[in-house]
Amino acid sequence: MVLRPLTLIGIILSIVTGIALGVLTHLMTRDNASADTTVTLSAAMKQVSENYVEEISEEELLSHAIDGMMRRLDDHSDYLDRSAFSYLKENTEGHFGGIGIELGLQDGFFTVIAPIDGTPAAEAGLQSGDRITKLNGEWVKGMLLTDIIDDLRGAPGTSVKLGVQRATDNDKIIQNLEFDLTRADIEFASVRSRLLEPGIAYIRISAFQNRTGDDVYDALAELTAETTTPLEGLVVDLRNNPGGTLQSSVEVADHFLDQGLIVYTEGRLKSSYAKYRATQGDLLAGLPIVVLINSGSASASEIVAGALQDHGRAQLMGSTSYGKGSVQSVLPLDHDQALKITTAYYFTPNGRSIHQKGIDPDIVFEGDDETMLAEAIAVLKAQESGSLRASL
User: Is the pLDDT at 188 greater than 80, yes or no?
Assistant: First the structure.
């Protein structure tokens, strides 16, 4: 996931990686690679290694070749070197050092998909859709994603400066902003919950991590025990949730469905075809649900929102989601390196692909947090509902 390099070094390397793209793909998809393809790759690397204006090791050259191959696939496939692979594992577990943003490549820009709740980025006011243009005073154009990750991470208490472009007024006006951020040791919980008022529960899911399904279950149990009146409805807040693991999103959707398909995936390989179904038992026994989404709701968030919408189990409120409907698999090359590669597309129970389209809410609504929650409560109360004393 990189920007196209414009420097001379980038142009030279792009020639090499362009050759490597076809060759390495062929090598990876055939059991017995022909001698010609092996010789071509070896010859290309030898020529660059011996004739490039600056000395470059074979290890570094191979790393560039793999990176170029992955770059040409799609925006979500990536070569994970030691730093990026470590970052991915730490982020999935919910503990890492840095400023707390989820980045993606959109229209050629490194774009903030969502700031993570309670982190320096969120507290400083970074927003979904912000485009990072400068990092510590240097333009990011031509940089690799791994370079940006390395620069954003660091010891708690150290600072980093971001230059950001923010579109306003239907993208007609562009603001150029600067953010001075202090890195922190970020250890965040993906689930927070509270009662909005007696009988109305609220669960905020900021990301889908390995424990998110269990954490949602525990939060419902605590809210049920806490309320002085039977539960009447639930607000699930997925705004600015950049996604996470597929399995945890399936677990969360399963909590609110009694049966039926949650999501299915399709790809080129037989192993990419999978169907995920709900198990018996709706934890809320049919009580009304409102799910909040916006343009920062992506991937696993859209799986949950799409499943509950298709089953008529929840009303979606907010604005159209991000539109990331592809599944990435992490394929280790060794202990320190891996490929994150798109292996399938996922579809909602009704067969909708939201890739590059997003999910439209049932109720279009934009406003500050207090106003939106008040409207969500009103929607819950307007629906027919029973009462629940869940035994969890």
Answer: no
List Cα–Cα distances, 353 to 43, 75, 342, 363, 371, in angstroms: 43, 17, 15, 20, 31
Asked whether the predicted pLDDT for residue 380 surpasses 50, the reply is yes
The mean pLDDT value of the chain amounts to 82
31: left (phi over 0), alpha (psi -120 to 50) or beta: alpha
d(CA 371, CA 367) in angstroms, rounded, equals: 6
Q: Answer whether residue 301 shows pLDDT above 90.
A: yes
CATH number of 191-382: 3.90.226.10
Q: Catalytic residue positions?
A: 299, 310, 324
Q: What is the pTM of this model?
A: 0.69
Percentage of the chain with pLDDT > 70? Answer: 83
The label of the residue with tokens 């959707």 reads 253
List of residues 6+ apart from 298 with CB closer than 8 A: 104, 113, 114, 241, 242, 243, 321, 322, 323, 324
Residue 202 · residue 195 · CB < 8 Å: yes
Residue 61 in this model has a pLDDT that exceeds 90: no
Segments making up each domain of the chain, as ranges: 8-72, 95-187, 191-382
CB 110 within 8 A of CB 56: no
Q: Which residues of 231-265 are buried (b: 16+ CB within 10 A; e: fewer)?
A: bbbbbbbbbbbbbbbbebbbbbbbbbbeeebbbbb
- DSSP result, 41-98: HHHHHHHHHHHSSS---HHHHHHHHHHHHHHTT-TT-EEE-HHHHHHHHHHHHTEEEE
For residues 194 and 219, what is the distance between their CA atoms, to the nearest angstrom? 9
H/E element, 223: helix 212-226
Instruction: Report the C-alpha gap between 235 and 289 in whole angstroms.
Output: 6
CATH class of 95-187: mainly beta
- Average pLDDT of 98-123? 81
